[in-house]
């Protein structure tokens, strides 16, 4: 089978760091075109456009990866589907749940693949954690996602605007692991969202979950004010006494205190293997569970004002 | 076919005002049991329980109408489905979208009917508005939902708590009409939510929508501080020049300035006719579109603090 001819829309940091090198290393994809509003080009692409509409006009393009900021993803994805292209969406897949739902209908209607990617799910440690927890009742879940926003998001004003998600931008990665590994769905029961006095997005959040079964103690804390060591950890304890710890953003797994997986992250390699498979069989994979938890947290969360944040 | 044997869980105002008389008047339903945590009973019901678990144990009960506050609906609905009962849910159908999604899966798994009711949709004027707008591009949408919270929700503290929805409690009725009548889906583009300094839920909201097609001016304003005349109006203008106004919460319709429908609301009569049909054919109807718009508005909305609210 010939390689999938792909285009990348939006040449920001994630496209440069991940999508471009991973596509180049995967023989089942061929980078046909890129589009960049800022007029960036890339040596590997045969075609470079400033306007993504021109990229969508190329009949050879089978699929596009949309790597723009989330606010414009829906409009681009919709036009891509209507142009007969399949679509890979960076996380979060759209600005709102209603936009994503419309893409689901449109993918069905056009018979094209839509693939919502949640990169943190593509770790061997996450797969192994899911297997280890399958079928058990959960007694305790503690998600600790604490990082220094000044280090990881310097100068990114849009993340602080309404709709920019704030600390849920990294937090949704944790939630995407939670929805993957938990043997039963979890729901937001209570949330407190800490908004700096001068910002329209939360800098920290405390979430309490409930599950259908049992009375487990299920918690998450997200904080963007962490200096020193950074934490991207998920600890789980089952009713039967199994303990499990995912650390380093989902790339290391300890079970019962013993290190069982420690691998260099290769998340985007896994994403493109999955996209290859979905394109080949002509199926979509639209997972809105992490995004729904974020919307639920904003909807039922209590807002608390905290100190102004200056970069 | 024998009448559907039904139970009502939660005997608050909406059960007393609507569900009980409407069930009594519909020969296709027979009220078998009620449950009320406060120990209320009802003369029409053969059985009265304080604990809804006892109601769910009655093998003759085919379906239950859940009329409790939204926070506990999911847990009750889940237990009802697992007990083999079909479920009618008052609006909003759950506390969070993730809870509703789980009920969708469970309804499928159990082969039972789940019916999310949006009472404002059950008006002839709404049906006629939908027909009139089908196939047209929308130039302007103006939703004006302004009422006096002191008059309509006296002493209801839970609506002011986080997760109590605030002005979206009536506002979701407007959104349920919008999602019903608009010929294309709409999305929240911007929102500003006004929170009283001493409350955890908004007292007013301004929403701007976008649609897949066109560049229409689509707006909604919800306000709970309205004294004097109350407004529950939806005005629509199509690109082709058709103007339409739904007023009085969806019970009156003017097209081109001419009154075409003016009927005494009979919303719950319509809801129970629909439930009868769904039970008879064994299908679910789970419409999360209005609820999704509310979650989207909270997720991307800008919070603005306004004067404290005292009853």
Question: Outline of this structure?
Answer:
Chain A is α/β, with parallel strands linked by helices. Chain A is 31% helix and 29% strand. The model of chain A has no long low-confidence stretch (mean pLDDT 95).
Task: Characterize the main sheet of chain A.
Answer: 9 strands, mixed
What's the number of domains of chain A? Answer: 2
CATH superfamily of the largest domain in chain A: Dihydrodipicolinate Reductase, domain 2
Oligomer: homodimer
Q: Which CATH first-tier class of the largest domain in chain A would you pick?
A: Alpha Beta
Mean pLDDT of chain A: 95
Question: What's the architecture of the largest domain in chain A in CATH terms?
Answer: 2-Layer Sandwich
Fraction of residues in helix of chain A: 25-40%
Task: Give the helix/strand class of chain A.
Answer: alpha/beta
Give the total of beta strands of chain A: 15
Tell me, what's the shape of chain A? globular
Q: Helix and strand succession of chain A?
A: EHEEHEHEHEHEHHEEEEEEEHHE
Enumerate how many helices of chain A there are, as a single number: 9
Question: Explain this structure to me?
Answer:
The structure is a homodimer of 311-residue chains. By secondary structure, chain A is α/β, with parallel strands linked by helices. Chain A has 2 domains: 4-116, NAD(P)-binding Rossmann-like Domain (Rossmann fold); 123-263 and 295-306, Dihydrodipicolinate Reductase, domain 2. The first copy, chain A, is 31% helix and 29% strand. Chain A has 9 helices and 15 strands. Chain A has helices spanning 13-25, 52-56, 73-82, 97-110, 124-133, 149-152, 168-181, 267-281, 289-300; strands at 4-9, 29-35, 47-49, 63-66, 86-89, 114-116, 138-146, 186-196, 204-211, 217-223, 231-238, 243-247, 252-255, 258-262, 302-306. In chain A, the strands form 2 sheets. Chain A has a 9-stranded mixed β-sheet with strand order 14-13-12-11-7-10-9-8-15. A 6-stranded parallel β-sheet of chain A has the order 3-2-1-4-5-6, sandwiched between helices. In chain A, helix 7 crosses helix 9 (289-300). The longest helix of chain A is centred in the C-terminal third of the chain and has 15 residues, at 267-281. Chain A binds chain B through residues 74, 78, 95-99, 101-102, 162-163, 165, 185-188, 190-191, 195, 200, 212, 289, 292-296, 298-303, and chain B through 74, 78, 95-99, 101-102, 162-163, 185-188, 190-191, 195, 200, 212, 289, 292-296, 298-303.
């Amino acid at each position: 089978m010939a390689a999938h001819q792909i285009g990348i829309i939006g040449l920001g940091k994630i496209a440069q760091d991940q999508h471009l090198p991973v596509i180049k290393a995967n023989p089942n994809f061929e980078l046909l075109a890129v589009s960049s509003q800022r007029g960036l080009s890339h040596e590997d692409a045969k075609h470079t456009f400033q306007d993504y509409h021109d990229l969508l006009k190329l009949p050879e393009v089978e699929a596009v990866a949309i790597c723009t900021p989330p606010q414009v993803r829906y409009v681009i994805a919709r036009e891509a589907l209507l142009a007969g292209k399949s679509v890979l969406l960076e996380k979060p897949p759209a600005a709102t749940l209603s936009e994503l739902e419309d893409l689901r209908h449109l993918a069905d209607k056009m018979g094209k693949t839509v693939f919502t990617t949640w990169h943190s799910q593509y770790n061997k440690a996450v797969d192994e954690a899911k297997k280890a927890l399958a079928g058990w009742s959960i007694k305790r879940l503690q998600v600790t996602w604490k990082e220094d926003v000044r280090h990881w998001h310097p100068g990114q004003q849009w993340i602080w605007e309404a709709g920019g998600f704030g600390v849920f931008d990294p937090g949704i990665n944790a939630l995407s692991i939670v929805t993957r590994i938990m043997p039963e769905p979890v729901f937001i029961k209570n949330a407190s969202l800490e908004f700096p006095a001068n910002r329209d997005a939360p800098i920290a959040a405390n979430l309490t979950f409930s599950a259908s079964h049992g009375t487990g103690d299920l918690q998450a804390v997200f904080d963007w004010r962490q200096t020193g060591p950074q934490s991207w950890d998920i600890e789980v304890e089952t009713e039967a006494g199994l303990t499990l710890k995912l650390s380093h953003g989902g790339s290391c797994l300890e079970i019962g205190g013993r290190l069982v997986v420690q691998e260099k992250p290769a998340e985007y390699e896994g994403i493109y293997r999955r996209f290859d498979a979905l394109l080949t069989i002509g199926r979509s994979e639209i997972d809105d569970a992490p995004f729904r938890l974020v919307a639920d947290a904003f909807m039922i969360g209590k807002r608390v004002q905290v100190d102004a944040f200056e970069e």
